[in-house]
Amino acid sequence: MVSIDGAQLQQTGSVTLDDVLNRLPQIVPSRGATSNGALLGGITTLDLRGLGSNRTLVLQDFHRLPAAISLGAVDINMIPSALIESVEVLTGGASAAYGSDAVAGVVNFKLNHKFTGLKLDAQTGITGRGDGFTAKLSATGGVEFADGRGHAILAASYDYRRGISNLSREFSRISRPSSALTTGTYVANGANLPSQNAVNSVFSGYGAAPGSVGASRNLGFNADGSLFSFQTDSFNFRDSGFGLITSGSGVRYNSAGVTGLTIPLKRYGLYGYTDFEISDAATIYAEGNYQHYSSTADYAPLSTTLFVPLSNPFVPEALKTILASRPNPAANFSVTRRFAEIGPRLQNSETDVYQVRLGAKGNVGIGDWTWEISGQYARNETDRSNLNGISASALATLVSAADGGRALCAGGLNLFGLQANSACADYIRRSTRESSVSKQGMVEANLQGSLLTLPAGPLKFALGADYRSDTFGYEPDNALKSGDIISFQSSALVPVNGNIKAKEVYAELSLPILHDLPLIRALDINLGYRYSDYQRLGGVSSYRAEASWELVRGLRARGGYARAVRVPSIQEAYAPTSRSSPTIGFAGTGGQGDPCDVGGAYRKGSSAASVRSLCVAQGVPAAIVDNYVFSTSQLIEGGTVGGNINLEPEVADTFTIGATFDPHIASPWFSRLTLSADYYNIAIKGAVGTLSATSIIQKCYNFDGSNASYSPSNYYCQLFDRNRSTGEIGGLQLNNLNLGNIKTSGIDIALDWLVDLDGANFPGGGKLQINGSVTRLESFKVQSLPGDAAIEYGGSIGYADATSVKALPRWKGLVSVSYSNGPATIGAQYRYVDRMLDASYVGGTSGTGEYTSAKSYVDLSLSMEVAKSFEYRMGVTNLTDTKPATFSSFDQSNTLPGVYDVFGTSFYAGVSIKW
After folding, report:
1. Helix boundaries (H) for 324-407
2. I need a labelling partner for 207 at 20 to 30 A (CA). Which of 264, 418, 509, 743 fits?
3. Cα(85)–Cα(766) distance, rounded to whole angstroms?
4. Phi (first) and psi of residue 704, to 5 degrees
5. DSSP 423
6. How far apart, in whole angstroms, are the C-alpha atoms of residue 582 and residue 10?
7. CA–CA separation, 20 vs 14, rounded Å?
């Protein structure tokens, strides 16, 4: 177990918990402060071991919290940060004790319920570049009453974080360029190609040699109506505005000017707690919590593909010449366009959390037996407004109108080169709203104490039961339901409603076996069992067995086995099937993009001929296969996603073995030294999830050896199809399945060392404290389907599954050193993240790949108690201004915020006043 106290949280200078906890080696950064582009409205979740936030159980004072999203993950923004006393992280083997879904482990936030007095705290921070302003304010009051039999606490807090633009940092100034251009792109139809002579005649006027621009090429539009070659040569490209740039892949759109590196956040909350001792044997208590937070995430202006009639009056003359040479000259043609004139897509989110818990606890009156019973109701409401979407019907009306839409909006809508005027932009622009509500009702009871005393010690027993009802509902507005809106989705959204009810009982036994024998100072066995009865899936069992062997005083070995069972979440089971537009990246980077793209790695090397044949067999027209370019990183025709009511629970087995050295030497240097090392091995069978679009396509095209014969009848090739005219991928089947296995293993090493320098007669005296935590990831293997080869993702960064980006370094470490003397404390923290392979190369047969560089960060802090009631603190993070590692397959800022510091050197200062 790893524990962080409240003082350590404060020393980081962060206003959000995820910034602090993501530094721990056991936690893989998930959705949080810097997750712009995650469509989650500022929600912050935790992911232990990289196994997913839905497999990480988050508790507050060892009580469950309501899920903020239908996947079952808890938003830690709801936890009152002003009262956090400590955070405990327990990985693996926790299901029998805390809940059957604690597959990866438990993160418990322990609050201070004994605070007395009044405390005011204020902190502000800013980066060395003058941006990223943060502020944190809190007021906490606690009082005893009824001669000390009662206690009450009230805490109010306000947190603020200003967002940072991608343009503000050199590494994100050109965010992974997209091939969906703001001036539009003509997409060649392989079944109706123009003649080469017509293309030659047009481009010869621009100075091109005959045949240098192929008839199957996609073409872009300059502002003056002339055409340019969309591919790598960018021939005749004339406009550097409209967010367009040139790169080795041709003309591309750079979204950095309109998207954020980090998202802004505002949060305020009020928390109250009171307890009252009604007798020597019983205490009643009540707890209430309200938190409100809002955030805004920004995204690139949307892009879509349109079918344009020849009658459109804005079609450039040069393009008319080319289109007229097609076998079917009167046919409509396709244009892909990014509508920058509509503005960047914005999602404003407002979240309200309500939580009430009532309970009683006390002594049984027999020995050390105690009891507790409590009930909780919690509600999480999120409302989102989505700005700058487009009405597909309104857009189609303008495009198909004989006058180009002039009768509907002044000037009409010109798709070719020029930006649309504001009147037409207003005509097609739409805003939508959607809301979600999660509710949790829970009653639980616990009883624990010693059954009897054995020769080796007391036999302790715990028994408990609970009933839990979790409900989630999602409701889009009528515009989103209609399917007319193109924004964050390309098809109709449907409501989601589901409920999971569970009745659970558990028992734990702590059995002392031997005591005070040679090399067996103590040998204990701990057993746990939990039976969970779910409304739909019936009963499942979780259990654990652990042994602890203290050889001599201070040297202890331990090991255990645990079985955990997780039932599918509401979204995994009940989400209706809907269309999606998954991102597969750009060709030329590892195994990303469309393998049929002539610029990609698949079309080169010894397998190029086999790939070409498979492309044609799947539907890429033979006439364009040798010039085929996938025009965007996103599959516009997309696929289907949804729940699966037939999902089975996933089963996880965890093995752990380790040792702790705590010498208890009567020395001021080593009396408070603890060193531990633990090996963990977690295997999940039948993991619930979806095959990612990239993984399906990679396997079809034998990236990892899954289709050595390059057969179109391969299982993975059957999961998608292609447009027989354009060759583009569509129809991907991405519904939830019980997939293969996920297996991870590694070693945790921890150091906790406090030295009393006064007792050691060290000059100047004081106290020196060193805390360190290092994790060595031995393996992280994912098996897509039973029978498939397991792919090793350990040591990689990128998409290790279909739902999230993961950073899985082989080594990750955090070391903190502090020195206290009198009223002053100075501290330093060192963080290390090992180098990683871009996950788009993982599983490839070529053995090559792109690696990020290893990164180290140093933070410094100082706190000073000026008077008994007044303290100030200050600090600097990322002292050396270390730049984040970049990798080309990730289009959010070219790096993974949360894993790497994207702020640069930053400063903070705060004061605390207590009466």
Report:
1. 392-400
2. 418
3. 24
4. -115, 20
5. H
6. 39
7. 7
pLDDT per residue over 580-590, tens digit each?
Answer: 767 777 676 56
Residue 640 · residue 693 · CB < 8 Å: no
* Whole-number Cα distances in Å, 684 to 51, 116, 537, 564: 9, 46, 18, 9
Whether 680 and 655 have beta carbons less than 8 Å apart is answered as yes
The pair of structure tokens assigned to 720 is 């998608």
Q: Rounded to 10 degrees, what is the CA torsion of 415, 418, 419, 422?
A: -90
Contact status, residue 230 vs residue 217, Cβ threshold 8 Å: yes
Summarize the confidence of residues 358-375 as an average pLDDT: 96
- Of 172, 163, 181, 203, the C-alpha closest to 321 is 203
pLDDT tens figures, 867-891 = 888 999 999 999 999 999 987 666 5
CA–CA separation, 615 vs 628, rounded Å?
10
Q: Return the higher-pLDDT residue of 558 and 645.
A: 558
Write phi, then psi, for 718 (nearest 5 degrees).
-80, -5
- 280, amino acid identity: D
Task: Please tell me the distance from the alpha carbon of residue 450 to that of residue 456, in angstroms, as a whole number.
Answer: 13
pLDDT of the residue at 15 = 81
Distances (CA, A) of 501 to 75, 471, 875: 21, 9, 47
pLDDT digits (tens, 9 = 90+) for 655-711: 999 999 998 888 888 889 999 999 999 999 999 988 888 888 989 999 888 899 999
| Residue 788, number of CB atoms within 10 A of its CB | 18
Cβ atoms of 227 and 319 within 8 Å: the answer is yes
What is the sign of the dihedral through the CA atoms of 683, 685, 688 and 689?
Answer: positive
Measured distance CA(700)–CA(718) in Å, rounded: 8
pLDDT: is 249 or 895 the higher one? 895
Which tokens in the block code for residue 430?
């739409």
**Cα separation, 426 vs 422, whole angstroms:** 6
What stretches of 650-705 adopt beta strand conformation (E)? Answer: 650-661, 673-685, 688-689
Q: Tell me if 245 sits within 8 A of 252, measured CB to CB.
A: yes
State the residue for tokens 């001929």.
Answer: 609
The total number of residues shown for the chain amounts to: 915
Across the chain, how many H-helices and E-strands are there? 11, 48
The alpha carbon of 443 is separated from its chain's Cα centroid by a whole number of angstroms, namely: 31
* CATH class of the domain defined by 647-690+737-915: mainly beta
Residues 6+ apart with CB under 8 A from 818: 11, 768, 769, 825, 826, 827, 828, 861
Read off the pLDDT of each residue in 24-49 and give the average, rounded to a whole number.
74
Phi/psi of residue 336, nearest 5 degrees: -100, 130
The rounded distance, in Å, linking the Cα atoms of 902 and 893 is: 9
Residue 70 has what pLDDT? 66
Phi and psi at 801, nearest 5°, equal -150, -175
> Cα-flanking dihedrals φ and ψ of residue 765, to 5°?
65, -155
- Residue 806 DSSP SS3: strand
- Burial 318-332, CB ≥16 within 10 A → b, else e: bbebbbebbeeeeeb
CA 682 to mean position of chain CA atoms: 21
- Tell me the pLDDT tens digit for each residue of 598-644: 878 888 888 999 999 999 999 999 988 988 877 666 665 567 778 88
Q: Identify the CA nearest to 290 among candidates 160, 381, 383.
A: 381
* Residue 525 contacts residue 545 (beta carbons within 8 Å): yes
* The predicted structure's pLDDT at residue 862: 96
Can you read off the two tokens belonging to residue 765? 């005296």
Residue pair 655/681 in contact (Cβ under 8 Å)? The answer is: yes
Token pair 């202890």 is at which residue? 556
Share of the chain above pLDDT 90, in %: 59
What is the pLDDT averaged over residues 848-863?
Answer: 91
Q: Taking 80 as the threshold, does the pLDDT of residue 243 lie above it?
A: yes
Distances (CA, A) of 465 to 57, 98, 446: 18, 11, 7
Nearest Cα neighbor of 333 from 320, 350, 346 is 320
The structure tokens listed for 215 are 């008839």
